[in-house]
TrEMBL record:
Ranges where the NmrA-like domain occurs: 4-132
Transmembrane intervals: none
Keywords: NADP, Oxidoreductase
One MF annotation (Gene Ontology) recorded for this entry: oxidoreductase activity
Protein name: NAD(P)-binding protein
Pfam families noted in UniProt: NmrA (PF05368)
Domain of life: Eukaryota
Gene3D superfamilies in UniProt: NAD(P)-binding Rossmann-like Domain, UDP-galactose 4-epimerase, domain 1
Length: 304
């Protein structure tokens, strides 16, 4: 299998923008799928305009006409039906590889995670749908549709700026969970972009797999020490118990409170996201190396 033409959906989002940047710097021919009424603009990028309702036949035709080999989806993972339409279009349009909107802080293949976070169940539904298409025959000569799901841990650099890692960097506060010595996996946004490129460059090795990566493998206390060293400031430490936090915010999440959902993701992404010894941990397979914690923090602080 050879991948040359790559289309991205969601290229202006928190993750989509750095993935698009990585794709544009690669050897692939890059296209962006854009809905008809979208106001997103993509300078120096070939745009494929598709109907707002993602009509499967229309999207499939657009993918086929542009000879798209791989479709990367970076819209919100909660958009299950939209992803299914895009996957159906990829299947009908002869696309060889789909990467769904997995890219998770948390592990959607873990039963306890799915019980705690309904959002992850949706990601599993999409992945199961892709699995169901693995062995389905397409038109003669098109081969079968393959997929790769990528679980990244918290978006590490982004998470430092918005409280996702349980730090208020501007306010110099650290919310330390369960003592702060739990190792967790996280990935800087540019690192995720690199991982996407590596997956496309190694289509055989990455076919029909759920892969885990991280650029940073740390504890909250290690992050706190680095923050204090680099800023020269003492952070206020607020100790929390993860279960007590979840007991407070999960009921709010289940009632539709989006901020509560983000807090559940934040907590669970610290206490239950250790990929190091997990089957499917793919740093070595993809040729990716962990990144320096202090350098990451310096870069984040410079941009704040």
């Amino acid at each position: 299998m050879t991948i040359k033409n790559v289309a991205l959906v969601g290229g202006t989002g928190t993750l989509g923008a750095p993935v698009l940047k990585a794709l544009k710097a690669s050897e692939f021919n890059i296209f962006v799928l854009n809905r008809q009424t979208s106001k997103s603009v993509y300078p120096k990028t070939t745009v494929i305009t598709v109907p707002d309702d993602l009509d499967v036949d229309a999207v499939a035709q657009a993918l086929r006409e542009n000879h798209i080999d791989a479709l990367i989806i970076t819209i919100a993972g909660s958009h299950v039906e939209s992803q299914k339409k895009l996957i159906d279009a990829a299947f009908k349009g002869g696309v060889k590889r789909v990467m769904p909107a997995e890219f998770g802080s948390c592990d959607s293949a873990d039963q306890k995670t799915n019980e705690i976070l309904p959002l992850m169940k949706g990601k599993k539904v999409v992945r199961d749908y892709l699995v169901s298409l693995e062995d389905k025959e397409r038109e003669i000569g098109e081969g079968k549709l393959t997929w790769t799901s990528l679980i990244t841990g918290h978006f590490f650099d982004y998470g430092l700026t918005c409280g996702l890692l349980k730090f208020d960097v501007k306010g110099r506060k650290a919310y330390i969970l369960d003592g702060g010595n739990i190792k967790f996996s996280g990935s800087n946004l540019d690192f995720i972009g690199k991982a996407v490129i590596k997956i496309l460059e190694k289509p055989q090795e990455s076919a029909n797999k759920l892969l885990y990566i991280h650029s940073n493998y740390v504890t909250q206390l290690e992050v706190l020490a680095a923050l204090e060293k680099i800023t020269g400031d003492k952070f206020e430490r607020i100790d929390q118990q993860s279960q007590a936090e979840l007991d407070v915010v999960r009921p709010k999440m289940l009632n539709g409170d989006r901020e509560a959902m983000e807090e559940v993701v934040a907590v669970w992404g610290v206490v239950a996201s250790d990929w190091k010894d997990k089957e499917g941990f793919a740093n070595s397979t993809l040729g990716l190396s962990e990144e320096d914690l202090e350098q990451t923090i310096k870069k984040v602080l410079a941009e704040l």
